[in-house]
Design goal:
Blueprint: H1 2-9, H2 13-26, H3 33-43, E1 46-52, E2 54-76, E3 82-87, E4 94-95, E5 100-104, H4 107-132, H5 141-166, E6 169-171, E7 176-178, E8 188-189, E9 196-211, E10 223-227, E11 236-243, E12 253-261, E13 272-288, E14 293-295, E15 298-305, E16 308-313, E17 315-319, E18 323-327, E19 336-340, E20 351-355
Parallel strand pairs: 1-20
Antiparallel strand pairs: 1-19, 2-9, 2-13, 3-5, 3-8, 4-7, 5-6, 7-9, 9-12, 10-11, 10-13, 11-12, 13-18, 14-15, 15-16, 15-19, 17-18
């Protein structure tokens, strides 16, 4: 007995407690409670909240600078040389198609038209007489043919005279607004003299460039938003009208032309615009923001497949409100990902899924 006490007195109290536990652990039936229930705890499925994976396009907003022109625009030049006798409209006036803007001196041309009409009437009367006397044999077929040809020549001369007369007036080819002109009555003009401009600005054509990356993702009829650079200017809606057939090898962009309604006449040709265009670029899995985890090797999610979880690496593509577009080949549409309980997850752990709201 004394030997036992002396042995105990030679060890610290903590050492004795450790030895006692070690001895108890070697006795049959003395397994710890944790060891007895460990296997059952390992096999028991962990409750987690999950949510299904959806796929949706990546929304890309493109902003570009565009330059506008009128839907129809023309610079007027005279067809002939002459003296201006009248300017009927001034800058800013609205003109109708066919309305005369500048009138040149046309006295000689009017006389030429009258002379051509007289010659035509004479030729027609001569041809009529020859036809009436044809049966009597007093007019040969050759003379009749010459009279017929004379009528045709006279008609052509009249048409040419009328065209020359038309050239003496400069008319609007379509409805629009007149631009500034430096032409006054008495001025001498020729075919190289710029008279004025006409713009049909009921709608504008806005041209801009898009990176070649988005070629094939823009279609005719696609909506765009157009706004001026003035602070607080309202947005105007338009649609894509034309897409160029080639990419510029220097800028790696392609041209797009859109049509913008301007019936209220607030915009002007030549203005520059800020273009906003929303595009859908590919389809990607979208997961809840709370499902995304980060590790030493990057982002990942816990995916549920067959009642167990697995770690799936992902690459963040775009952040949305409460959701994240990711890139991964192991997240098919409809697969569930863990949104709550991620801190308890490990590879291959059985889980009981509770669908998230």
């Amino acid at each position: 007995m004394n030997s036992v006490i002396s042995l105990a007195s030679s060890f610290p109290r903590s050492g004795l407690l450790g030895m006692a536990f070690m001895m108890l652990g070697t006795l049959p039936g003395c397994e710890s409670r944790d060891q007895a229930g460990g296997d059952n705890k390992k096999d028991r499925a962990q409750p987690v909240v999950t949510q299904s994976v959806d796929w949706q396009p990546r929304q890309v907003r493109i902003e570009a600078v565009g330059t506008s022109r009128a839907a129809r625009s023309v610079t007027l030049f005279p067809e002939v040389t002459g003296e201006v006798v009248e300017v009927t409209l001034k800058a800013g006036d609205r003109v109708k198609a066919g309305q005369t803007i500048v009138q040149l001196d046309d006295r000689d041309q009017r006389l030429a038209v009258e002379l051509a009409r007289v010659e035509l009437r004479d030729a027609e009367r001569r041809y009529g007489r020859y036809q009436r006397t044809r049966e009597s044999g007093s007019v040969t077929e050759s003379a009749l043919d010459d009279a017929r040809s004379a009528v045709e020549r006279a008609r052509i001369n009249l048409n040419r005279a009328e065209v020359a007369l038309d050239y003496r007036s400069i008319d609007a080819p379509f409805d629009g607004h007149i631009g500034i002109s430096d032409i006054d009555p008495g001025a001498q003009v020729d075919p190289s003299t710029e008279i004025t401009t006409i713009d049909d600005r009921s709608s504008l054509l806005v041209s801009f460039q898009i990176p070649e990356l988005f070629l094939g993702q823009i279609a005719e009829g696609q909506a765009i938003a157009v706004s001026t650079w003035a602070s607080g200017s309202p947005q105007h809606q338009g649609e894509v009208l034309e897409i160029d057939s080639r990419v510029n090898p220097q800028t790696r962009t392609f041209d797009v032309r859109a049509q913008v309604d301007n019936t209220e006449d607030r915009l002007r040709p030549g203005m520059s615009f800020r273009i906003t265009l929303d595009l859908a670029a590919g389809r990607y899995p979208v997961v809840p923001e709370v499902a995304l985890q980060w590790g030493n090797d990057g982002a990942y999610v816990w995916a549920v497949d067959g009642g167990t979880v697995s770690r799936v690496p992902v690459t963040v593509v775009q952040r949305l409100q409460g959701k994240i577009l990711v890139e991964s080949g192991a997240l098919p549409e409809g697969m569930s990902v863990v949104t709550e309980g991620t801190q308890r997850m490990r590879e291959g752990l059985p889980v009981a899924s509770i669908a998230g709201l």
